[in-house]
Amino acid sequence: MRFTKLCLMLTAHRGWWPVAGSYHPGDYGVPKNEEEAFEIIVGAVLTQNTAWTSVERALENLRASKR
After folding, report:
1. Gyration radius (Cα) of the chain, Å
2. pTM > 0.70
3. Mind listing the pLDDT tens digit for each residue in 9-60?
4. Residue among 63, 13, 16 at smallest CA distance from 38
5. Longest Cα pair distance anywhere in the chain, in angstroms?
């Protein structure tokens, strides 16, 4: 069995990516709009070299600046 297939079988799809400050376990319909897609992309990029708490704060600031 290929390693990647084995990993997928063991971990499965989580559907957990937090959008708009809340998690959506098992909801594979996220993102539901362009704003949520943007938030996931920015969050993924920021997470590469930043602590998650800092990423959450940055995303909250982005959301607040759009209001």
Report:
1. 14
2. no
3. 777 666 667 777 777 767 767 678 888 888 888 888 888 888 888 888 988 8
4. 63
5. 50
